[in-house]
Amino acid sequence: MPSRERVESLIALVVQGKYVEAIQEFYTEDASMQENQEPPRKGLQVLVAGEEKALAMFKEIRTLAAKSFLIDGDRVAINWLFELVAHDGRSFQQDEIAYQLWRGDKISEEQFYYDPGQRKLA
């Protein structure tokens, strides 16, 4: 079960834009990530590679806020707000919930919930 301080440390790293580092530090070797109802990606190296690929798709990804978070035993939910900027300068904001299962002080499963309709460049 994660402590409040541990979850706040994860949030701080993500707010700093250290997305790959957050995965490396806060996820188990066999962790999985899932976008909405898509098939999950599994394994730490797969998650790191997926994050690096996502970062390369955009000029910049900024974490605007962790609007709130909840901890219930080994379950954590974080409401993130991101701004994603394309290479041509257009951008969109994504408001999402990350629902996590923690094993000890690391995330073993994570599913993201968001409206794909937000992902329109303006």
Brief summary of the model shown:
This protein has 122 residues and is an alpha+beta fold.
Account of the 3D structure:
There is one protein chain. With 122 residues, the protein is of the alpha+beta class. Helix content is 27%, strand content 46%. The chain has 3 helices and 6 strands. Strands 2-1-6-5-4-3 form a 6-stranded mixed sheet, covered by helices on one side. A hairpin with a 5-residue loop joins strand 1 and strand 2. The longest helix has 13 residues, at 44-56. The radius of gyration is 14 Å and the shape is globular.
| Terminal Cα span | 40 Å
The biggest sheet, with number of strands, parallel, antiparallel or mixed sense and barrel status, is: 6 strands, mixed
The order of strands across the largest sheet is 2-1-6-5-4-3
Series of H and E elements:
HHEEHEEEE
Low-confidence blocks of residues:
none
**Number of helical segments with 4 or more residues:** 3
The count of strands amounts to 6
Radius of gyration over all CA atoms, rounded: 14 Å
Average per-residue pLDDT, rounded, comes to 96
* Percent of sequence in beta strands: over 45%
- Helix-strand makeup class: alpha+beta
Helix content: 25-40%
Net shape: globular
